[in-house]
Specification:
The complex is a heterodimer of chains A (270) and B (124). Chain A is α+β, with helices and mostly antiparallel strands. Chain A is built from 6 helices and 10 strands, in the order βββαββαβαααββαββ. In chain A, strands 1, 2, 3, 4 and 5 form a 5-stranded antiparallel beta sheet that branches. In chain A, strands 7-8-6-9 form a 4-stranded antiparallel beta sheet. In chain A, helix 3 packs across helix 4 and helix 4 packs antiparallel against helix 5. Chain B is 61% helix and 4% strand. Chain B starts with 5 loop residues before the first helix and ends in a 6-residue tail after the last helix. The N terminus and C terminus of chain B are likely disordered. Classes of the chains: A alpha+beta (270), B mainly alpha (124). The interface between A and B is large, with 107 and 80 residues.
């Protein structure tokens, strides 16, 4: 397996060669060398390889074998990637890698990944110790938020009157204008409600990243880096928001997760 | 994948697809230090279709009901809604989210067992 590797996140290296199965190491993330990993965990790919820990110094990589000729990206692959990282994150700091990170093999994991980046990895793991990611997601109840918008916006209310009982063809322009007003109002509400949540939860998280909405009725989509000791307080405060927004926004809290939103790669000055 | 995983999978994809460290020999690792929040508004791209759908959704609102509810809604967002019921709802949602994840993970684990036979995809 002397293939030299420089694989960037994205996909399995294409290798237009033999029919023979070529195995490479899929990398899930980096953990402290002494982290305890759930045993008998299976990774992604088909067939799914066993998850192993490749150690170097004080850090280690979570890897499993994948067949480089098999495309990754089935739903089960995504889920296996996140499930492993989240399972680890609840017990130890972990630097999650982007989906689809593959290197040539166990030797390359040490020589090209762990050894050159040992100190950076260790420093990042130390920073993350005792913290995990939580994601707050809120979705507007469409009817409730529509009523709210119509009550607050006389132009929209007037347009609604104008299209009542008409066909879509007859009032197409009014409809488009009305929809545009609603979309704009939704965006403004989303910004405001996102701020309210971030401000309201202040003190319970160390960093926050506001994610792009994943749905047009999204009210909130924000990732928080939270100390384990703050988890209960965070849940309590969020519950209060839920009470206040009952019937208006459905709030969900995901976590603890691996800190996907709080690790990043910086290009090194050359 | 079937219906039960729909929500879970969407969350997973939203989370792992373009986040996380990228391996590259020339890339150094560091943590983002975002304290100041920025809101990215590029978002869900609005189109005429979206507008027409919003308009239709507004059109479908029952006016008689909405007259009454508008004030309720406003009161609820500003004032104190009936607390007990709401608390249960939220608590329920939080717990449900937890359960969903676990349940989902189990299902996936199961699925993985079955998948090799079922998922022999003819990619070539």
């Amino acid at each position: 397996m002397g293939r030299s590797t420089k694989v960037s996140g994205g996909s399995v290296p294409k290798q237009a060669t033999r029919r023979k199965q070529t195995l490479a190491s899929y990398v899930y993330g980096i953990v402290p060398a002494d982290a305890r990993i759930p045993s008998d965990e299976r990774g992604l790919g088909d067939p799914a390889g066993k998850v192993t820990v490749v150690r170097h110094g004080e850090v280690a990589a979570l890897v499993s074998d994948v067949d480089v000729d098999q495309p990754l990206g089935r739903p089960g692959d995504y889920v296996a990637h996140e499930r492993l990282l989240d399972a680890v994150a609840s017990a130890a700091p972990v630097l999650p890698f982007r989906f689809g990170s593959v290197v040539a093999g166990a030797d390359a994991v040490v020589n090209e990944l762990l050894q050159p980046h040992h100190d950076d990895f260790l420093a990042a793991l130390n920073e993350l110790a005792g913290q995990a990611e939580f994601v707050v997601k809120g979705r507007y109840e469409e009817q409730a938020v529509m009523r709210e918008i119509l009550a607050e916006n006389p132009e929209a209310a007037g347009l609604l009157e104008a299209i009542r009982g008409t066909s879509e063809d007859a009032t197409r322009n009014e409809r488009i204008r009305l929809g545009e007003l609603i979309a704009g109002a939704l965006e403004a509400k989303r910004d405001m409600d996102t701020r309210l949540v971030c401000d309201g939860l202040a003190g319970h998280y160390t960093q926050a990243v506001i994610r792009e909405p994943s749905h047009e009725n999204d009210a909130v989509n924000v990732a928080l880096l939270v100390r384990t000791s703050q988890q209960e307080a965070l849940e309590r405060t969020l519950s209060a928001f839920g009470e206040q927004w009952s019937g208006r926004v459905n709030l969900r809290l995901l976590g603890p997760l691996a800190p996907y939103d709080f690790v990043t790669a910086q290009a090194e000055e050359v | 994948m079937g219906r039960p995983s729909a929500t879970g999978l969407a969350d997973v994809i939203d989370t792992i697809l373009d986040r996380g460290l990228v391996i590259d020999a020339y890339v150094r690792v560091s943590l983002v230090g975002i304290e100041i929040l920025t809101i990215d508004t590029r978002v869900v791209v609005a189109s005429v279709d979206t507008y027409l759908r919003f308009a239709e959704a507004a059109n479908r609102l029952d006016m008689a009901q909405s007259q009454k509810d508008v004030t309720d809604v406003i009161q609820e967002t500003k004032g104190q809604p009936s607390v007990d019921r709401a608390k249960n709802v939220v608590q329920g949602v939080l717990e449900a989210a937890d359960e969903k994840l676990e349940e989902f993970a189990d299902q996936v684990a199961q699925k993985r067992e079955e998948e090799p036979t079922r998922a022999e995809r003819k990619d070539k």
